């Protein structure tokens, strides 16, 4: 649940905040809108590539969840630290791709430990807790901006959320393994035949 909270909070935070960051570069509204298309093109590619790569390398879903989260955190952090608007924007694009790329693979985990009727309730609970990230992001990010006077400082908060979420994915994996569940094992689709 908390892993999805980190993903959702960061996704909402970046979605809400990136146009403000780009506007801080001194561009006109039309240019701001056009520039804000670029991160979503990066996200579209990452949403296609990461799950395809995860499928090719079955048995290691954790890597395909955590690595994009850490890439996203690094991108957010570097978007604050590097000089120049172009570099800041480029790292924001990398961050956006990382934030979203792990989400499809993340949602393959709940069926490894939720079965039957509990699956529906469990997935709904995970999604509900994750969506609280939207509430937190739209309130905490502006508070950080007001406290620091920086449009970019909130990105450090979002990066910390991603790192915490990535760490919690490892914790959940360890707990599942301690109970004899193998979260990185392949889940066969309902239509596939069992090996004979």
TrEMBL record:
Membrane topology per record: Multi-pass membrane protein
Segments traversing the membrane: 33-50, 62-83, 89-109, 116-136, 156-176
Superkingdom of source: Bacteria
Subcellular location: Membrane
Keywords linked to the UniProt accession: Membrane, Transmembrane, Transmembrane helix, Transport
Keyword DNA-binding: no
Name under which the protein is recorded: MFS transporter
């Amino acid at each position: 649940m908390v892993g999805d909270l980190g993903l959702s909070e960061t996704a909402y935070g970046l979605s809400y905040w990136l146009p403000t960051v780009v506007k801080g570069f001194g561009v006109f509204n039309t240019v701001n809108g056009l520039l804000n298309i670029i991160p979503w093109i990066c996200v579209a590619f990452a949403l296609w590539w990461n799950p395809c790569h995860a499928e090719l390398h079955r048995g290691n879903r954790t890597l395909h969840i955590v690595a994009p989260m850490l890439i996203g955190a690094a991108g957010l952090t570097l978007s604050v630290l590097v000089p120049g608007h172009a570099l800041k924007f480029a790292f924001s694009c990398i961050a956006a791709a990382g934030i979203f790329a792990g989400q499809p693979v993340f949602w393959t985990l709940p069926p490894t430990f939720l079965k039957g009727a509990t699956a529906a309730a469990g997935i709904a609970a995970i999604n509900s807790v994750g969506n609280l990230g939207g509430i937190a992001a739209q309130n905490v990010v502006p508070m950080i901006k007001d406290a620091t006077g920086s449009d970019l400082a909130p990105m450090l908060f979002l990066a910390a959320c991603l790192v915490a979420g990535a760490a919690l994915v490892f914790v959940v994996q360890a707990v599942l393994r301690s109970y004899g569940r193998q979260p990185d094992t392949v889940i066969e689709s309902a239509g596939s035949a069992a090996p004979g």
